[in-house]
Amino acid sequence: MSKKIITFAIILVTIMGTCGLLIAARAQTSIISTSNTHYAHGDYTVDDFIILAIRVSKMIMGIVGSLSLIMLIYGGFMFLISAGSSESITKARKIIVAAIIGLVIVFSSYLIIKFVLGAIGIDWNGDKITVALAPAAPTVVIRS
């Protein structure tokens, strides 16, 4: 009985802490920039929608990554309290493997999104990448 209470208490504290972090993160930034002149007039461009998609993908990857990390901690905790039961160990191992797969998916999606954005000339913040070209080498004319 005490294992169930301890497990419930740890899960509750983890969920409350995660919700608090998500609320604090949400309060700091907004998906749509209200300081932009397009916001007041409603005349958005394609760039604004790309920036919106980047911000939404950041939020989704942050939430999924946090949930994967919580499940990894939960699987490790279940592994610790299994007390040698083969069923509990198998269940905990499945949870840990699923959490690691989730983290791999999040990191892969980050790399894919960053690669695609770089290929079309946009950085991770939605700004255009400016490439500084090297100055042309001076031509030498030899006159005789």
Structure overview:
This protein has 144 residues and is mainly α. 70% of the residues lie in helices and 0% in strands. The chain is built from four helices and no strands. It has helices spanning 2-28, 37-41, 46-80, 86-119. Helix 1 packs antiparallel against helix 3 and helix 3 (46-80) runs antiparallel to helix 4.
SSE order and pairing:
Layout: H1 2-28, H2 37-41, H3 46-80, H4 86-119
Count of runs of 4 or more consecutive helical residues: 4
Instruction: Give the helix/strand class.
Output: mainly alpha
Instruction: State the end-to-end CA separation.
Output: 100 Å
Biggest sheet, open or closed, and with what strands and sense?
none
Mean pLDDT: 76
What fraction, in percent, of the residue positions are helical? over 70%
Number of strands: 0
The shape, in one word, is elongated
Q: Which stretches are low in confidence, meaning pLDDT under 50 for 5 or more residues running?
A: none
Using only CA atoms, what is the Rg?
24 Å
> Beta-sheet strand percentage?
under 5%
Order of helices and strands: HHHH
Number of domains: 1
Short note summarizing the structure:
The protein has 144 residues and is an all-alpha fold.
